[in-house]
Amino acid sequence: MPADTLSLAGKTASVTGSGRETGIGAGISGALARDGASVAIHYVSEDSKARAEKAASNINKEFGTNITVVQGGMENYDSAKSMVEQILQAFSVDYTDIFVNNAAVARNTPLLKVKQEQLEHEFAVNVFGVECLKGAASSASSASSTSSPSPRKFWVHLLLYSATTAAMDALKMLWDRELGKSHRISVNTLAPDPVPTDLSKEYMVNPDGCPIALLVSMYAKIRAVNRIGTVEDLADATLLLVSEKSLWITVQLISVSGGITGTV
User: Fold this and answer.
1) Entry pTM
2) If one looks up domain 12-193+233-256 in CATH, what number appears?
3) Using alpha carbons only, what angle is made at residue 204 by residues 198 and 206, rounded to the nearest 5 degrees?
4) What is the tens place of the pLDDT at every residue in 138-157?
5) What residues contact 13, with CB distance under 8 A and at least 6 apart?
6) What does the domain layout of the chain look like in residue ranges?
7) Concatenated DSSP letters for 105-135?
8) CA–CA dist 118, 108 (Å, integer)
9) Which residues pair with 38 in a beta bridge?
10) Where is average pLDDT lowest: 117-126, 158-167, 212-221?
11) Is 90 helix (H, G, I), strand (E, B) or coil?
12) How many CB atoms lie within 10 A of CB 5?
């Protein structure tokens, strides 16, 4: 009897916000491709096109799996529908097996200084956009797992972002209730602590290159290994959640943080 594996051979996956070749989304895409999935790399603006194509090229060269690149803003239903149609056509399939919601926006703004434009933009991308994309894809999805990196803590300078992730948690419970049994879908959330990428570097490192005081204090709270998290940690956790072996795990918020707890 052969050993069980986390093979995704024959599966198709869509990973939003995966157009930065050094980012979390690209890392997750690489892990899914490594285990055999065909993966759609997503980016939003023309400024990101070259990096998205590089991310796709890197994954294709390393793992030889089928990769496509799609562009679109998630907060618009027509755009979300177009993205889904592009993916299905590129892979010649009727549905995607795996949907990873990695795209998000956040601004470091004190709550009393948040303007209407920021409020609408963050909820549009982080909440409405994912619902638009899921709504556009749900009629064509028969087996899907959703894993979206989002904080389980309320970060003092990202309170609005934390509010959007709370809204997403509520939506995922709704997806599971209405689509879980009928479409064989599991819906889970990864909750990481800060992971260094080129996008997060400005929030995690001082001008002199040393980590900020908050990051230093986190080292003492880590219970697993003596280091902060990496893109690979999140990618491997996602791989576990989207495999057939995890269908009994659903509507869970799973900490990928080395055991750190509390509000920061």
Assistant:
1) 0.88
2) 3.40.50.720
3) 105
4) 544 444 555 555 544 545 56
5) 29, 32, 37, 38, 39, 40, 96, 97, 98, 99, 100, 242
6) 12-193+233-256
7) ------GGG--HHHHHHHHIIIIIHHHHHHH
8) 11
9) 12
10) 212-221
11) helix
12) 11
How far CA 166 is from CA of 92, 127, 191, 253, in Å, comes to 35, 9, 12, 11
264: tokens are 């920061």
pLDDT at 179: 81
Give residue 70's region: left, alpha or beta (phi > 0; psi -120 to 50).
beta
60 three-state secondary structure: helix
Residue 181 has pLDDT above 70, yes or no: yes
Report the number of secondary-structure helices (H) and strands (E) in the chain.
9, 7
Where do we find the tokens 């470091």? 108
CA distance 241 to 146: 8
